[in-house]
Amino acid sequence: MKVLESDVKKFAVEKNLKIFQPEKIKGNEEFIKEIEETKPEIICVVAYGKILPKEILEIPKKGCINLHPSLLPKYRGSAPIQRAVLNGDRETRCNNNAYE
Predict the structure, then answer these.
(1) H or E element: which one contains 35?
(2) What pLDDT band is residue 95 in, cutting at 50, 70 and 90?
């Protein structure tokens, strides 16, 4: 078992985009300061399982975008894809489109 980078992270690394992956956000003043110093126009959060505090959401001029896969309506919550795999689903449906 080993941790693998997502395709999104690989793309960001290839494009020399700044990536933040803090273990802890709440009360992490160093992390918040680092984001503030980058003066982002927008923050893109991808499949991050923690709630961002208001002080971070207010930093970017144009706001934050949260990208999180969800297999609605059957699976909701923090781990929809994992639950589909654990339940042995061979097909999932999202927005009336089938994905295998």
Answers:
(1) helix 29-38
(2) very low
Taking Cα atoms as reference points, which of 17, 14, 42, 19 lies closest to residue 31?
A: 19
Distance CA 76, CA 78 (A): 7
Q: Which long-range contacts link 32-38 to residues 24+ away (Cβ below 8 Å)?
A: 32/56, 32/59, 35/59
Can you tell me the distance from the alpha carbon of 6 to that of 80, in angstroms, rounded to the nearest whole number?
A: 16
Q: What radius of gyration, in Å, describes the C-alpha atoms of the chain?
A: 16
- Give tens-digit pLDDT for 20-77: 888 888 889 999 999 999 999 999 887 777 788 899 999 999 999 887 666 666 777 7
Residue 56's nearest CA partner among 89, 29, 92 is 29
Tokens of 71: 């297999």
Do residues 27 and 53 lie in contact, with contact meaning Cβ atoms separated by under 8 Å? no
